[in-house]
UniProtKB/TrEMBL annotation:
Pfam families: NTP_transf_9 (PF04248). Residues 15-105 form the DUF427 domain. It comes from Aquicoccus porphyridii. This is DUF427 domain-containing protein. InterPro entries: DUF427 (IPR007361), DUF427_sf (IPR038694).
C-alpha cells in the first residue's frame, strides 16, 4: 500500500547551509510528508546557488514520486556525495515538487527555518 504523501507550503523562511556557506534561502519552500517519515523540505531550484552542486551519476526510483536525480555539494574542504536530490518528472500526485531540490540534513548540512 502506498504511503499517504502530503505537500504543503512550508511556512516562513527556510535556509540550507553546508561547509560554512549558505546554499539557499527561500520563502517558497514546500514540505513533503510521506507516511510516518520525517518531513522533507523542498527548495525551489531558483532559490539555490547551483554553483555549489555537481550532478552525480547516482539515481533512485520511488514508486510514488518517480525517478530521483542526485547532486553532490562541493565545499571549500570536501565534497558531500549525493546529498541533494530532485524529481525532474515526478508522478502526477506529487507534481508540485518538480523543479525543487531536497537536502539530506546531517552534521555537515543544515536545513532550518529562520
Amino acid at each position: 500500500m502506498a504511503p499517504k504523501i502530503t505537500i504543503t507550503r512550508a511556512p516562513g523562511t527556510w535556509v540550507v547551509r553546508a561547509g560554512g556557506a549558505v546554499l539557499g534561502e527561500s520563502k517558497n519552500a514546500l514540505e513533503l510528508v510521506e507516511g510516518d517519515m520525517p518531513p522533507v523540505i523542498y527548495f525551489p531550484r531558483e532559490d539555490i546557488a547551483m554553483a555549489f552542486l555537481d550532478e552525480s551519476d547516482h539515481a533512485t526510483t520511488c514508486p510514488w514520486k518517480g525517478a530521483a536525480r542526485y547532486f553532490s555539494i562541493v565545499t571549500k574542504s570536501t565534497t558531500l556525495e549525493n546529498t541533494v536530490w530532485s524529481y525532474e518528472n515526478p508522478q502526477e500526485d506529487v507534481a508540485r515538487i518538480k523543479d525543487h531540490l531536497a537536502f539530506y540534513p546531517s552534521e555537515k548540512v543544515a536545513v532550518e527555518q529562520v
